[in-house]
């Protein structure tokens, strides 16, 4: 009798073992979907941290570039000032060299500079040995 009732129920509502199988398959699918979702969340967090690191690096590079540009501008201004000063000095030397007294002054200054380098060379040789 008990088996007969179970058979009637199975016929009426479907097999309980088949519904358990359907439920377990549905649960496995849900667990798999949940696992994929967790993996995706983890990958997204990793990607976000890498993007954040790249953002910091690019900001640092940008700051460094701005600093280098400022240094280059300062150097360009210094060289321009030196060039103007040197041009003025050369003009004054040309004026002095064109005069008779200036030529003898140029020879004397040249001799002193050459003598200075000779003494410097001799002293450095003596100190190095």
UniProtKB/TrEMBL annotation:
Residues 15-24 have a biased composition (Low complexity). One of its GO terms (cellular component) is Golgi membrane. Coiled coil: none annotated. Gene3D superfamilies: 1.20.5.110. Residues 34-96 form the T-SNARE coiled-coil homology domain. Residues 1-24 are annotated as: Disordered. The keyword Zinc does not apply. The chain crosses the membrane at residues 105-123. Its main location: membrane. Residues 1-14 have a biased composition (Polar residues). It is found in: Endomembrane system; Golgi apparatus membrane. Keywords: Golgi apparatus, Membrane, Protein transport, Transmembrane, Transmembrane helix, Transport. InterPro entries: BET1_SNARE (IPR039899), T_SNARE_dom (IPR000727). It comes from the Eukaryota. SMART domains: t_SNARE. SUPFAM superfamilies: SNARE fusion complex. One of its GO terms (biological process) is protein transport. This is t-SNARE coiled-coil homology domain-containing protein. It comes from Linnemannia exigua.
């Amino acid at each position: 009798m008990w088996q007969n009732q179970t058979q009637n129920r199975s016929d009426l509502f479907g097999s309980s073992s088949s519904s358990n199988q359907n439920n377990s398959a549905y649960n496995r699918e849900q667990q798999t979907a949940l696992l994929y979702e967790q993996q995706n969340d983890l990958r997204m967090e990793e990607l976000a941290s890498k993007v954040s690191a790249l953002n910091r690096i690019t900001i640092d590079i940008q700051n460094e570039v701005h600093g280098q540009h400022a240094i280059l501008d300062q150097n360009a201004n210094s060289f321009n000032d030196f060039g103007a000063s040197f041009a003025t000095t050369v003009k004054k030397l040309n004026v002095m060299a064109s005069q008779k007294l200036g030529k003898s002054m140029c020879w004397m200054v040249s001799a002193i500079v050459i003598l200075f380098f000779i003494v410097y060379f001799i002293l450095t040789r003596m100190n190095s040995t």
